[in-house]
Design goal:
6 helices
Length: about 130
C-alpha cells in the first residue's frame, strides 16, 4: 500500500481513499475500507430523540488512534504467525536450535503481550 501511495504521489496523482480502492490490490482495498469505514452505526433517531451525541471513528481527532489500532492488529497477526511457525519447527531440531527457537518464542510472546496490552485486549482470536 505504501509503495502504491509513493508511486501515485511521484506521478502527481492524489492518492486518496477512492484512488486506493479503485486501483489497489484486493489487500489494499480491504485495508482502506477497514480504515475508512465505521464498524457500527447508530440510528440517526438516537441523537434526535435522546439528544445524545455519538462520536464517529471518522472524526479527524480519532483517526490517528484508529489507524494505530488497525496497524497494531496487523502486526499482532504477523507475530502469531511467527509463533506458529516456531511451534511447527520444534519437533525436528537439535538441542542448540531448540534453545534459540525457545528464546525467540519467548521474545515474540512478550511482544504479543505488549501489543494486547496496547490494544486493551486480554485475548484476541487468532
Amino acid at each position: 500500500m505504501l509503495t502504491m501511495y509513493r508511486e501515485a504521489i511521484s506521478q502527481g496523482i492524489e492518492a486518496d481513499d477512492s484512488y486506493m480502492i479503485r486501483y489497489g490490490t484486493p489487500d489494499v482495498v480491504e485495508t482502506v475500507v477497514n480504515i475508512t469505514s465505521e464498524k457500527y452505526q447508530a440510528s440517526e433517531n438516537w441523537e434526535i430523540m435522546h439528544e445524545i451525541v455519538i462520536p464517529h471513528e471518522s472524526d479527524l481527532e480519532r483517526l490517528p488512534n484508529t489507524v494505530y489500532t488497525y496497524v497494531l492488529r496487523h502486526k499482532y497477526k504477523f507475530i502469531v504467525k511467527l509463533l506458529k511457525e516456531i511451534e511447527e519447527k520444534l519437533d525436528a531440531v537439535t538441542e542448540e536450535e531448540l534453545v534459540q527457537l525457545l528464546e525467540e518464542y519467548h521474545r515474540l510472546n512478550q511482544i504479543k503481550k505488549s501489543m494486547l496490552s496496547d490494544l486493551g485486549t486480554v485475548i484476541l482470536p487468532e
